[in-house]
Amino acid sequence: MHRYRSHTCGALRAEHVEQEVRLSGWVHRVRDHGGLLFIDLRDHYGITQIVADPDSPAFSIAESVRSEWCIRIDGSVRARTPETVNPQLETGEIEIFAQEIEVLSDAPELPLPVFNEPDYPEDVRLKYRFLDLRRETLHDTIVTRSAVVRRLRDLMHDQNFTEFQTPILTASSPEGARDFLVPSRIHPGKFYALPQAPQQFKQLIMMAGFDRYFQIAPCFRDEDPRADRLPGEFYQLDVELSFVTQDDVFSAMEPVMRGIFEAFADGKPVTQEFPRIPYKEAMRKYGSDKPDLRNPIIMEEVTEHFAGSGFKIFANMIASDPKIEVWAIPARTGGSRAFCDRMNSWAQGEGQPGLGYIFFRGAGEAIEGAGPVAKNIGEERTDAIRNQLGLGDGDAIFFVAGNPKKFADFAGAARQRVGIDLNLVDEDRFELAWIVDFPMFEWNEDEKRVDFSHNPFSMPQGGLEALETEDPLTIDAYQYDVVCNGFEIGSGAIRNHRPEIMKKAFDIAGYGEDVLEEKFGGMLRALQFGAPPHGGMAAGLDRIVMLVCGKKNLREVTMFPMNQQAEDLLMGAPSEVTPVQLRDLSIRIIPPAK
Question: In what helix (H) or strand (E) does residue 432 lie, and over which residues does it extend?
Fold first, then answer.
């Protein structure tokens, strides 16, 4: 028999009764039933119940073991009596009568309980992550993550993609987030950068004559903590294709995105045909470029109904500035003063002066609007707004006014708050969509200049002619995101494969040819030697796993995450290094000014 086990703790069934077996694992819990000891023994595969009575030679050791000791059990498989069968366990029809127990390693009192998974402070969970990972819920989630990666690879191979690996040590780029820099010992004063994404390399792969590339790629960004991104590093499904249009990318990737959710949806509906929503439409209807389409609320503009009205706050704003708009957020079933007041208080908590509202009462033609807004604009305007939005008795409307560029995010948050609080959002489905036609450029208010809106290597719609003849802030790009349930899970573009277009685009964003040559010389040279039209995308693995596992926090789907201060509490990173190490790298530490 094997030194440690003949079976795993999840393998034994009724057909193994009377067999002599050997199991190894961790003591999940110990129960004393009047002199009869029960040990739940756990390993990666499951839990098996072990029984030791006072007549067993293993009884004395069984009395001494404690939670999370690692032990080996020799014993015989017995059938449980009908009343003791545990249908919650795959091994619930049997138990092992212990004949010998060997303690492989003991454990002191635990800083973090494993059994029953009580809530515990996150800093303790991260410091003792190896114990946290023994907990069934997190353990199963990490196993699901592995299964997601495997399924993604299968789906990509089904679409005729080939997996390649790109460098980790590369050159720093001026665009995007801050790089993580790695000093070179061999080249004093020079630095490598960890890749924010394999963007340039995957394009160069297309220029090298390969056709369909993918990679489960590690990416590194020295960003401040964000709720929707792990600090430091993350993984993405990185994709690029040659001789493709935007439609070709969508056709190749929709089966992959749909397939991964279907594989782990546990019967929940998954969008079959992804709608394509232009960026401006998404912001207008949902107040977000990553809308949660499970929420049925669609916002509408109602500016004309407030222009010249008795609601002077909005009317004066509209009269003073042609950019001012009023958006309405319909709230079916939200027509009570109590709910409207709660939403108004929520808006004030978000730093807004408030949230205007109207709620409706009555039936048929006798429906009346109530609230200060209705009183000030009058019955005719109130009815016109209600009819435009198709509302009736028991419904409400909330209003946001100002320059949409400044209030769209807040309006989107209010839309989502209304949908959740009124139980309008169907939580048991995966709604996916493409967001298309992103702006090529945006205005950088801090630096008072035009800057790239998304990926600087994207193809502008209209090509070189558009860059030379149109206002840059009106040019859209062949850029797109794929979104699911309110999260951006992927982003991509058709790339700029013509050097003259690349030079002009970077010139508009303030990068001269000298900068272009210095920072992107390899890309520029490749574009000059017969670059194919190409495009691709990258999908966030961590976010996909978070969604399919129903988690709210990316750290719950990552094996060894950092905390929100970008610290690895388990390994003690970042850490100081020795003077010798610094001297080898020709580096001197200059403390920050106090």
Answer: strand 432-436
Angle at 408 between CA 405 and CA 409, to 5 degrees: 115
| CA-closest candidate to residue 489, choices 440, 419, 433 | 433
Assign 64 to helix, strand or coil: helix
User: Which residue from 554, 442, 441 is spatially nearest to 489, judged by alpha carbons?
Assistant: 554
- Decide: 118 and 132 in contact? Cβ < 8 Å: no
Q: Is the dihedral of CA 4, 9, 12, 18 positive or negative?
A: positive
Q: Identify whether the C-beta of residue 388 lies closer than 8 Å to the C-beta of residue 399.
A: no
Written as six digits, the tokens of 372 are 């200060």
67-109 pLDDT, tens digit each: 999 999 999 999 999 999 999 999 999 999 999 999 999 999 9
Contact 410, 287 (CB under 8 A): yes
Cα separation, 265 vs 144, whole angstroms: 12
Measured distance CA(415)–CA(286) in Å, rounded: 7
Distance from C-alpha of 212 to C-alpha of 162, rounded to nearest angstrom: 6
Per residue in 19-28, pLDDT tens?
999 999 999 9
Q: 153-168: per-residue pLDDT in tens?
A: 999 999 999 999 999 9
Question: Is residue 311 within 8 Å of residue 376, measured between CB atoms?
Answer: yes
DSSP-derived letter for residue 15 is: G
Residue type, position 361, single letter = R
To 5 degrees, how large is the angle CA 422–CA 423–CA 427? Answer: 150
Query: Which tens digit of pLDDT belongs to each residue from 231-249?
Result: 889 999 999 999 999 999 9
Q: Has this prediction a pTM greater than 0.90?
A: yes
Return the exposure string of 44-69: e unless at least 16 CB atoms fall within 10 Å of the residue's CB, then b.
eebbbbbbbeeebebbebbeebebbb
- Rounded Cα distance between 501 and 466, Å, is 10
Q: How do 70-79 and 20-33 pair as beta strands?
A: antiparallel
What span, in angstroms and rounded, lies between the C-alpha atoms of 555 and 564? Answer: 10
So what's the pLDDT on residue 363?
76
Distance of alpha carbon 42 from alpha carbon 32, whole angstroms? 18
Q: Is 316 exposed, middle or buried (0-12, 13-18, 19+ CB in 10 A)?
A: exposed
Q: Which residues on adjacent β-strands are paired with residue 276?
A: 434
Q: Angle, to 10 degrees, between the axis of helix 246-264 and the axis of helix 136-158?
A: 140
